[in-house]
């Protein structure tokens, strides 16, 4: 394994950081999250049109740049550093790979070039608070019970004249209130022969109601979608294994989320080190006290270790390499812990101002807590990785 980044990868990082430094400062960030969409559409247009960010990991035949998970993870590290509220995670990391893996030739040709250009945003709608389970990050449900089990509740799909219809409700859909295309996981076949398939639902479809929810992390907007006999298109064909595709996607999602968390942790730690070097107490900078140095040094070591784990997880998902199924969840657990630690130190060492809503330190802490609620918790990420690696099984069993 060559751990060095290529010149092209380093250029992606530099260019993206320069753009976000200019277009996504604290004031721009707060203005963006207060919009109905929850993100700055002009910034998204710049990220897509100037940098081609949504198509970074899509093949050139689909209008993308032909990159890998590694390039997307580097991009996520920079967007995480700025806490940039964009549809990148929902569109390019969660939805687009499923379209690429399961879509028919016509679906890929009609949708992926639009996603790569930034002209189409998408979201993955998984019923219930079970996104981490669906992605096989905290468990592996081979029957898809998280989607409703074929019983009342969840989302159900049935054949209708000329196609399919879906019925149900999904909460906590990342960018679900604003995405122009929804990839909805739904049960078909009733209870006895129930199976999970993925369906495409247009954002303006009849019978679809969407509303933005109040989320702990305002920089990660979420929506609730209600489907009342909404016309839908099956993603792929009846033979598509949606559960396996979601499970395979989990490693990529975890690597990108880990890189995002590492970028955020590194940034809040930088801001804290800068502040304690300026703030004075008892006639000397706060950062000159040994106890403060030790706390920041411990946080720095934790962030750097998490960064290495995130980079390895991205490389393993792109390869793929032995142990790739556990590298992502373990890296995500380590990165979320590092972000929570760095954000907590930032809040405390900023003193009284760090506890106020006017300061952005709390936004980093909320990102860590919000991601752990959506994709964790940390102890379950590690427990599932241990189970997948058969760590605690006795020899011969």
What does this structure look like?
By secondary structure, the protein is α+β, with helices and mostly antiparallel strands. It has 12 helices and 9 strands. The protein has helices spanning 7-23, 26-33, 41-49, 69-81, 88-102, 105-117, 131-134, 242-276, 290-318, 324-349, 361-375, 378-388; strands at residues 122-125, 155-160, 163-174, 181-188, 195-202, 208-213, 222-234, 280-281, 284-285. Strands 1, 2, 3, 4, 5, 6 and 7 form a 7-stranded mixed sheet that branches. It has a two-stranded antiparallel ribbon with strand order 8-9. Helix 4 (69-81) runs antiparallel to helix 9, helix 8 packs antiparallel against helix 9 (290-318) and helix 8 runs antiparallel to helix 11. It is globular.
